[in-house]
Amino acid sequence: MALPAHATTGERIWYYVFRVLVAVVFIYLVFPILTIIPLSFNSGEFLHYPLQGVSLRWYHDVVASGQWAAAVKNSLIVGVCSMILATALGTTAAVGINRAKFPGKQLLVALLISPMMIPLVISALALYLFFAKIGLNDTYLGIILAHTILGMPFVLITVSATLQGFDYSLVNAGASLGAAPLPVFFRIVMPLILPGIVSGAMFAFATSLDEVVVVLFIAGPAHRTLPLQMFSGIREHLSPTILAVATMLIVFAGLLMLTLEFLRRRNERLNAAANVAG
Amino acid sequence: MALQDVADRSLHDKLRRAERRKKIEAVSLIGPLLLIMLIFYFIPIGMMLYRSVDNSQMREVLPETAKALVHWSGEGLPGESAYAAVVADMKVAYPARTLAGAGRRLNFDQVGFYSLLLKSGRKMKKLGGPPYKEKLIKLDKKWGNPQYWTVMKRGLKNITLLYLLRAVDLRYDDKNNIVGVPEEQAIYASIIQRTVYISLSVTILCLLIGYPLAYFMATSSASVRNLLMIGLLLVFWTSLLVRTLSWILVLQDKGVVNSFLLSLGIISHPLPLVFNRIGVYIAMTHVLLPFMVLPLYSVMAGIPSYYVRAARSLGATPIAAFFKVYTPMTLPGIGAGCLMVFIQALGYYITPALVGGPKDQMVSYFVAFFVNERVNWSMASSLGVVLLLMTGSFYLIFGKRVNITNMKLG
Fold first, then answer.
1. CA-CA 20 to 30 A from B148: which of A189, B14, B49, B275?
2. Do the Cβ atoms of A77 and A71 come closer than 8 Å?
3. What is the Cα–Cα distance from B313 to B315, expressed in whole angstroms?
């Protein structure tokens, strides 16, 4: 969208004004997150600039404090378990939904992705009341089940998206050559839809790692996850230790994003190659 | 029978068997997820919805009173049998410590009932034998007030609309008519209004900010686009708490924005930018912006530039070409983005709780408030029903036109 040579003065002014506008929007988007990172290396206790010196003391604090270490451990347990469950359940269901034709398919899909649309506080309240009856509040199992349900819709959506272009004659070819259904799935279908599965799994893990509302309702003190620890930290006593944790989470987000971008581009490249070949 | 017929039939059978196998396969693939969702999601949601009207625990605490009041006309005071029943119930419920819970529920309808029940329950031992009517009225004259008995009878039904009504600022009057609550007690209608207002404002802000950004991304060179996309996705993937925290730091009195403005001499005192409505708008718009920009961008990226150029060559001014040719083609993106942002904003809890003041809290906050601080599950569920109805109705009205499932997720 370069400025043409014959542009009028008005067009020229608008061209630059528009660029400045977009730059301001972009700064609004990225700047606040970036301000956290230097502050987390502050050697003083203040939460504002200028820095009083550079040190790693708050990072040391995260590692040394039992509370934060426990929160990280809890989040990893819950995140990994719910990610595995959500991915397994979501992938198989996506394959089943994609292959079969039946009435009410749209409704079923809408129901299965409803945890994504229903306000979190409603899911949290419903699970809290239900878990109170069956004794699953304040347990790992309860939080894992809750996060499985919240993360599963993302797996369903990403896997369904990769299945859209899937060529089922490959499955028939495998079967006609004598392979049983399970080997066909693991050796033919799975490698082809793997990018979708991996993105879905990452979505599920990120959802669990970022989820506060449900945990706030159903987790006891012994099962505090990282976001819950941060939430009460921000609310009660905002210390620089939280900034160190936040910086780690920003780095994690960056890694997540790069991996997903890589997967997406690989997928696009493969699709383009397949289109040329086909 | 001809050989051909046999072959046809066996082919037919084979086809049918194959179809059946396919069906079994689909069921066994979808089944496990559906079962887990049913047990751990849909049943809990259903139970929560029922909880908003469920009043059966009252009959467990005051069973005799419930029976005795069935035949009471509701005019004047009930007879001795009702008084005897309430005494019998209190004698059991007070030592069992269930009376306080019942008192709290009745107190929700009629202020003063909690203290009445507890005070009476405490004195049951010294009450002596029947008749009880006079004795109870002497104990507390509220027992001689027909209003309390109306509330008692209403409060002992298995299903109550009391909490749902209260969630929209309605109540029963002493004749069992539904009326508005007195003005000084009316809070929920304004909370619902505020929730819609904040969500709408945030949606409009996201559109105003997101549209130019998406447009720029869709029309600029690949390297600029990639840089913007990386920034956008980094924000999208960063934890909600981290983003909210960063706004607290940036907007606080000694934060970057205020120090910058102070150093320029534009202001002489720090502006109050956080823990109020301004903070809520700034942070919520930031958090939800990617949900506006991503669908807009994916629609805009598919619009070829020659439409606008054609309009221009046919004599349209740049503004006319943009608003009459380009903008209508982006409507699907606008719809998807606005719906995503608006519906999510309606249910927001964490961000307003952290960067807002007491007057900026939305419906979700009060659901959590009634669970964690008041332990009033009926009221929490009722507000949950209201929130679900709000989200559901917007989704039903607009969701048909906008395909959410097709939305690109980064």
1. B49
2. no
3. 5
Please give the mean pLDDT across all residues of chain B. Answer: 89
Q: Is residue B404 over pLDDT 60?
A: no
CATH, residue A152: 1.10.3720.10
Residue B41 in contact with partner chain A when CB distance is under 8 A: yes
Per-residue pLDDT, B3: 67
Q: What is the CATH number of domain B189-406?
A: 1.10.3720.10
DSSP of B120-179: HHHTGGGS-SS--HHHHHHH-GGGG-HHHHHHHHHHTSSB--HHHHHHTTEEE-TTS-EE
Determine the distance from the C-alpha atom of residue B310 to the mean position of all C-alpha atoms in its chain, rounded to a whole number: 47
Establish if A19 belongs to a structural domain.
no
Size of interface A-B (CB pairs under 8 A): 249
Per the structure, the count of domains in chain A is 1
Residue B21 has pLDDT above 90, yes or no: no
Contact A35 B249 (CB under 8 A): yes
Check if the beta carbon of residue A197 is closer than 8 Å to that of residue A84.
Answer: no
Which alpha helices (H) appear in B238-305, and where do they start and end?
240-251, 256-264, 277-300
Contact partners, residue B42, CB within 8 Å, separation at least 6: A111
Q: Which domain holds residue A200?
A: 67-277
Q: Which residues are registered as beta bridge partners of A42?
A: A54
Residue A122 lies in a domain: yes
Distance from CA of A178 to the nearest CA of B (A): 16
Domain locations in chain B?
1-47, 61-148, 189-406
Could you give the CA distance from residue B299 to residue B409 in angstroms, rounded to a whole number? 13
Chain-centroid distance, C-alpha B119 = 37
